[in-house]
Specification:
Layout (H helix, E strand, L loop, with lengths): L1 H11 L5 H20 L5 H8 L6 H37 L4 H5 L2 H21 L13 H28 L2 H19 L15 E4 L4 E6 L1 H11 L2 E4 L6 E2 L4 E6 L5 H8 E4 L10 H13 L7 H18 L8 E4 L2 E5 L5 H15 L4 H17 L3 H21 L3 H20 L2
Helix pairs in contact: 2-6, 2-7, 4-6, 4-7, 6-7, 8-11, 8-12, 9-10, 11-12, 11-13, 12-13, 12-14, 13-15, 14-15, 14-16, 15-16
Protein name: DUF2254 domain-containing protein
Organism: Terrihabitans rhizophilus
Keywords: Membrane, Transmembrane, Transmembrane helix
Length: 426
């Protein structure tokens, strides 16, 4: 249930309206409290004389009306700027990165401050009464509206700066790279686990369909398997799309309530999330690189920047261990999960970039340089062999697609440097 709750919170973060709605609610409550406080006899006059608004009812109405109209107008501008930024990000960096912009709490809070100021001003405005209506001016509440107006001014300046910075491709790459490194830290281990056992056959179990697998409650499923004396082997992993009718697990020996147990342990959603999928952010980075290498964009510098960040992540993985996906209860294996191994991570990082970098000497040369640096910090023979395979593929792609003699010579020089490094650190 913990994994399902986290998946629910992850999807809740995609709701662009949630934080603005909370800010508006807070502003309305603040307005009600401010009006109630200033209703205390004598307190309102002290506030007005000390530092707050000291004008009359007509001035308060004019002031609150101006703040309300201007804040809702700026809120429309903020929303328009946000939509323009989303369109630009979708066109240049890929539609899957829209999720990062929509989830940005700073964009949501900026919109919430402007709409909240509008709601605050309206709530206070309805309480202002002139002489003909038994006069009442909530000086503290009006002073609060002035402070919110000043906050809106500062927020507008900050928001324009934030949007300008957030659509810079280097900042986007850096942000996704930071998320990837955090995922690597969370999903890798300090010590190696025992190798996963082979599943002894089993009966396929089918649930769900037409959805992405978001999270697995491994502990809950392993506890159920131990209780019933069975072994569960998942055939899908978080991030996979599960078509209707496809089995998600095999259970040995067969168990009647296996389908219900899997229903409780597996969480599905309409789109993948990064909750338990270490390759989620890798796909986002590679999408930026592939779009940069498209003929319409032709930006090898952005693609090379992505390759550099991916190389840094492999350096982060060096010295750490990937989980095997085996969950034990005592001395018995209860659950086997499909997990990302080092080969799969490298393939996800470099295959699609290399395939789209055909003819781009700059990117292929930089790819070899990055793989050389990774070999400097990676000591495990199996991983070094994986890195070597990708270096060979980059060399073959370059020799096949590059026509420029100097570019081919540079590529072969980097290949020689790679072999020198991998031999020196062997």
């Amino acid at each position: 249930m913990y994994a399902r709750s986290r998946a629910w919170l992850e999807e809740l973060g995609d709701q662009f309206w949630l934080r603005p709605a909370l800010v508006v609610t807070l502003c309305i409550l603040l307005a009600v409290v401010a009006v109630q406080v200033t209703s205390v006899p004598g307190l309102d006059e002290e506030i007005a004389q000390a530092w707050g608004y000291s004008g009359g009812a007509e001035g308060a109405r004019a002031l609150l009306g101006a703040i309300a109209s201007s804040s809702i107008g700026v809120a429309g501008t903020v929303f328009s700027i946000t939509i323009a930024a989303l369109s630009l990000a979708s066109g240049q960096m890929g539609p899957r990165l829209l999720r990062n912009f929509v989830r940005d709490a700073r964009n949501q809070l900026a919109l919430g401050i402007f709409i909240g100021t509008f709601a605050y001003s309206l709530v206070v405005l309805r309480t202002v009464r002139t002489v003909e209506e038994q006069p009442f001016v909530p000086h503290l509440a009006v002073s609060g509206a002035i402070l919110l107006a000043i906050l809106c001014t500062a927020t507008l300046v900050w928001f324009v700066h934030h949007i300008a910075a957030s659509i810079n491709v280097e900042n986007v790459i850096s942000s996704v790279h930071d998320d990837l490194n955090h995922a690597v830290t969370a999903r890798t281990l300090d010590e190696a686990e025992p190798e996963a056992d082979e599943m002894p056959g089993g009966v396929p179990v089918r649930i769900g369909g037409n959805r992405y697998l978001l999270a697995v409650d491994a502990d809950g499923l392993a506890n159920w398997a131990e209780k019933h004396g069975v072994v569960v082997s998942l055939t899908v992993r978080p991030g996979d799309y599960v078509p209707k009718g496809i089995s998600v697990a095999r259970v040995h020996p067969p168990q009647d309530d296996a389908e219900q147990a899997l229903q409780n342990a597996l969480t599905f959603g309409a789109r993948p999330v990064a909750l338990q999928d270490i390759e989620f952010y890798i796909r986002q980075l590679t999408e930026i690189a592939v779009r940069a290498l498209s003929p319409g964009t032709n930006d090898p510098f952005t693609a090379a920047s992505v390759v550099e960040r991916l190389g840094d992540t492999l350096c982060q993985i060096a010295g750490r261990h990937l989980p095997t996906g085996m969950v034990r209860r005592g001395d018995t294996v209860s659950l086997l999960q499909r997990v990302s191994d080092y080969q799969g991570i490298c393939d996800a990082m470099f295959d699609i970039i290399r395939q789209n970098a055909s003819g781009s000497a700059f990117v292929l040369i930089r790819l070899l340089e990055v793989l050389t640096m990774v070999c400097e910090v990676e000591d495990e023979p199996a991983r070094r062999q994986c890195i070597r395979e990708h270096a060979e593929l980059a060399l073959e792609e370059g020799l096949r697609s590059l026509q420029d003699r100097d570019a081919r010579a540079d590529l072969e020089e980097r290949w020689a440097m790679f072999n020198q490094q991998i031999g020196a650190s062997a």
